[in-house]
């Protein structure tokens, strides 16, 4: 049966665990609320506290915005599948969801590169920090990250529209690019090649730039004579390093599983793909809230005002 471009797909949810969807909705909805509350709280603090209008916190606010958009793009539909058995999704809605999910992932990765540059300047050029990282430069970095997400991901749904689909049922909780490509019965090599190109460009190049920044940071730290200065410099980068780990490790596993993980159970693969989207968004506010002294001070000040 052929599926025309104006028709719809069916999202299965988590294949093999359909009977457990009502139970799985509990951690999904809990993480959803935690992401909205945690990221929203940090966005509110950065927006309302003038002392937090620094490059580091402005980039952090952009990262939190990307996390919220990514979560809103797929979790509500996933919960509709779990709770209401509402599995239908229009093709244009599916492609739009795909654009926002993958686009925010590219945007987030580009922001992590910008934040690595921010940490490099903070450690290696502390006296020139405010001069180098002006608000206008942060704005340009944010626009470049956004443009990268749009330019790289927009061709994906456009290339999909030329395909003929002979399957409607997508064994996933959201419209992942490779999951939708596998539904096609026409020639998909351009789609697969472009998808792999985006992964290699985003993950490979961004990790290379981040690694280069931290190599320079490590070189500067080694030259420090004071143990306290060394500890302070490393502590400056710790939150960013934690975020890099929770962002790229699940992303790499998910991408590899899509292409070579034929023996991985479908439910394990889908859970990993959801974890790749949800885990960084949930942990980022916790990591930055714990590691950043200024953020903790502002939270405590706000709490004191409410209790007094």
TrEMBL record:
Any Pfam family: 7tm_4
Key words of the record: G-protein coupled receptor, Membrane, Olfaction, Receptor, Sensory transduction, Transducer, Transmembrane, Transmembrane helix
Cellular location(s): Membrane
Transmembrane segments: 23-45, 57-75, 95-117, 137-160, 193-218, 239-258, 270-290
SUPFAM superfamilies given in the database record: Family A G protein-coupled receptor-like
UniProt KW Transmembrane keyword: yes
An MF annotation (GO) of this entry: G protein-coupled receptor activity
Main location: membrane
GO CC terms in record: plasma membrane
Record-annotated G-protein coupled receptors family 1 profile domain positions: 38-288
Membrane topology, from the record: Multi-pass membrane protein
PROSITE patterns per record: G_PROTEIN_RECEP_F1_2 (PS50262)
Gene3D superfamilies for the chain: Rhodopsin 7-helix transmembrane proteins (1.20.1070.10)
Protein task: Odorant receptor.
Record-given protein name: Olfactory receptor 52P1
Organism: Dipodomys ordii (Ord's kangaroo rat)
Taxonomy of the source species: Eukaryota, Metazoa, Chordata, Craniata, Vertebrata
């Amino acid at each position: 049966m052929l599926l025309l471009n104006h028709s719809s797909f069916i999202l299965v949810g988590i294949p093999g665990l359909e009977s457990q969807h009502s139970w799985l909705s509990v951690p999904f909805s809990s993480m959803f609320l935690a992401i909205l509350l945690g990221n929203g709280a940090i966005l509110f603090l950065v927006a309302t506290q003038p002392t937090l209008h620094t490059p580091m916190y402005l980039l952090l606010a952009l990262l939190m915005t990307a996390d919220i958009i990514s979560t809103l793009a797929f979790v509500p539909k996933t919960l509709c599948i779990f709770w209401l058995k509402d599995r239908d999704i229009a093709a244009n809605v599916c492609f739009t969801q795909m654009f926002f999910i993958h686009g925010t992932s590219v945007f987030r990765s580009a922001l992590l590169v910008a934040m690595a540059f921010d940490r490099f300047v903070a450690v290696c050029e502390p006296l020139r920090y405010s001069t180098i990282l002006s608000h206008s430069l942060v704005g340009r970095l944010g626009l470049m990250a956004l443009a990268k997400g749009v330019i790289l991901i927009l061709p994906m749904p456009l290339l999909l529209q030329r395909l003929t689909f002979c399957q409607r049922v997508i064994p996933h909780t959201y419209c992942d690019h490779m999951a939708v490509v596998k539904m096609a019965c026409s020639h998909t090599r351009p789609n697969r090649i472009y998808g792999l190109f985006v992964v290699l460009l985003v993950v490979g190049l961004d990790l290379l730039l981040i690694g280069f920044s931290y190599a320079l940071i490590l070189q500067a730290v080694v030259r420090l004579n004071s143990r306290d200065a060394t500890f302070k410099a490393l502590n400056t980068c710790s939150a960013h390093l934690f975020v890099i780990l929770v962002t790229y490790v699940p992303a790499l596993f998910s991408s590899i599983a899509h292409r070579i993980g034929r023996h991985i159970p479908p439910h394990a693969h889908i859970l990993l793909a959801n974890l790749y989207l949800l885990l960084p968004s949930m942990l980022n506010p916790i990591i930055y809230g714990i590691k950043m002294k200024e953020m903790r001070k502002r939270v405590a000040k706000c709490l004191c005002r409410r209790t007094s």
